[in-house]
Amino acid sequence: MNTIQVVDLKNQYLKIQSEIDEAVLEVVRSCAYINGPAVKEFQADLERYLGVKHVIPCANGTDALQIALMSLDLSPGDEVITPSFTYIATSEVAAVLGLRTVFVDVDEDTFTIDPSKLETLINEKTKAIIPVHLYGQCSNMEEIMAIAKKRNIAVIEDTAQAIGADYTFKDNTSKKAGTIGDIGTTSFFPSKNLGCYGDGGAIFTNSDDLAEKIRMIANHGQKKRYFHDVIGVNSRLDSIQAAVLKVKLKYLDEYCEARRKAAQSYSEAFAKLDSLQTPKVAPYTSHVYHQYTLKLDEGISRDAFQAHLKERGIPSNVYYPLPNHMQKGFLNSDHFLGDLSVTMDLKNRVVSLPIHTELEDAQVDYIISTITEYLESIKISA
User: Which residue among 21, 213, 360, 381 is least packed, with the fewest CB closer than 10 Å?
Assistant: First the structure.
């Protein structure tokens, strides 16, 4: 059995090496490194895949979030609601722009925004909600959008962990994650389900007006070269990364299915264990398992659990041990806390297992048997 890794980018690359190498060499031969044909081709391919009118590539997922907020013409002190139980980028960009971050709690099963907690946090200063499609499944977008539309609040979807996931509405129609709100954003960080070989990101929208503004902001605020209509930033996806993504996009559904297969094996095997909770998939969304995250029983020491796995060559991670509102960088920032009781509970109990496209059946079986034997042993000793 090969060494178990959290992400196995090398073997993923080897399977598509000839396509990747040729795509990268084509860019090098053309010398069109910035905004070359590869960028435009990938953009068009991703628009077709997502079924969205506009995809605007940019330098990374954090830039995507910042540019999305900048396109809404918000003023310092305006409020943005987002979960604290996520990566720092979502709230970081709001703070950078002088906006007030309002932290909302998440659902205890899906770990995404709990819509029932939104209404009490909304006031006349609330201008945007940023649902995070955490770990690979969509937030409850139908309820979130209903609340937002009623109060004329913009919705920006953070789809960095869920690109490829499908959301099904009550009328049985469906849309891809990131295409439901006013704006969607994603990251192409190498470990993502759709990752490049450096940094990269993109912004999605069906609004022509927002798309025009977003393109301007991402390009120094200009539509015409050297004429800057707004204050913008410099954020672009380079042609080599676009060439890599154009190849890998063809395999995205296959990659997601490989992750689902491993996740299903985990969940079926762990179903009989009452000392942990396997990921619960909401009925309105598919799950692409960017992470496979367990919730351990309160009586299980996470440190001891992870140490046992490490001793047996199984890596694991905690996403996220310290919520955004507890980070030192936020202690002196302008923010407001809702009831975050679920967030505070999850930070002590979640742990993520290896999940990636190259995970072997033997590795999955070994991980399952190791965890099962450990939890049964400490149960017996207790």
Answer: 381
- Tell how far CA 307 is from the center of its chain: 27
CATH for 9-249 is 3.40.640.10
Region 252-381: CATH code: 3.90.1150.10
Sheet holding 154-158, edge to edge: 54-58, 201-205, 183-187, 154-158, 126-129, 79-83, 100-104, 335-337
* Separation CA 279–CA 253 (nearest Å): 20
Token pair, residue 283, equals 């009925």
The list of the chain residues with pLDDT below 50 reads none
* 3-class secondary-structure state, position 140: coil
The pairing of strands 183-187 and 350-353 is: unpaired
Condensed to tens digits (0 to 9), the pLDDT of residues 364-373 reads: 999 999 999 9
> Where do the domains of the chain lie?
9-249, 252-381
Helix, strand, or coil (residue 127): strand
Q: How far is CA 203 from CA 28, 48, 116, 198, in A?
A: 26, 14, 27, 17
